[in-house]
Amino acid sequence: MFREALIRFNEKGLAKTDLSTITKYVIEGRIEVDGPVDKNDVVGAVFGQTEGIFSSDLDLRELQKTGRIGRIEINVNTQANKAFGRITVPTSLDRYTTALIAAMIESIDRVGPYQARVVIDKIEDTRLEKRKRIVERAKEILASWEKQKLPDDDLILRDLEEAIVKTKVVEFGPEKLPAGPEVDSSDEIIVVEGRADVINLLRFGYKNTIAVEGVKIPKTVASLTRKKKKVIAFLDGDRGGDLILQELLNNCKVDAVARAPYGKEVEQLTAREIHEALEHAVHPEEALKAKEYAVAEKKTAVPPDLKSVVKEVDGTLSAVLLNSELQEISRMPVSDLVNRLGDEKNAKYVVFDGVITQRLVDTAASLGGEVYLIGARVGEIQSKPASVHIYTTHELASFS
To answer: Which of 121, 181, 193, 251 has its CA 20 to 30 A from that of 137?
Structure first.
């Protein structure tokens, strides 16, 4: 009803239809003429040679008047006494009628006195293109919506817990060092590296902590350690922790040393990992010997040429296996490393963009010789045979 009314409305000449709102299809074709003609010649041929082939209902002029086809666009260029052009016809007709109109236009065989050829390249369904644009935009809107959605209950509770814990952190001494609320009153204190470590220990009930906030030991910490019955240095399992350990032993009274698992930081530890690290705290001399041995091993055992391999795998989630001559023998995704490493009996250096796990350590040990595992970070390692050496890619990159 609406379309018929619209057609009658246009036939009376009272208004023009905006075809862009109703166009369903666009006929696109090309024309070649064996002579120098212009646009007006081609327009005349299009309307003249299609007139009267079928009933007046399919006459191009009548279809334009009723708004069922839009403005026919024709572009013509002349080259070497030949004319080449493009014909574009938008329609609001059904598929069958649109195809018939296209075939009518393709039947044009002359323009003026010259032979001509018209080829229809395609009929584009504008609704499909619009649908694609709508779907793509819907995806963008959904992605934006997902980012803005409210956090789930666990995240809300974690945020609340974090906020409460942070309010318990106090500023201690003239340097305003981050500390737990019982650091002054407790007979035993735990010295950590930074504010994030204090917050993590507070989360699990350790209120007698204080942070040194850097390699240089503050006077407040040095003085405080001499007043306490027991002082535990609880440091990250990396080279930074080694440096701070040495400074603490030079400037403070330290009764025991606890370390985060190799490659981890105190701020990342779970309640169980914190408990186990403190339970296995060792005498400072023993901790220092372990550090010196590890540093000596790193400086002498790892070829500097591996740095280029470290850079190559960074961010790729891939693994590269090399033999004792540093020749590449295999390359694979990290996800396949554990299953395939056991078959590479000549592998000595395993450089990969992933986590060093206990299962990977056990597989490396089964190869029978010395194996160097160089990964992005280290997971929880319960046991490590002497034949397996563990490094992080960050550590290797920092070696001179």
So the answer is: 121
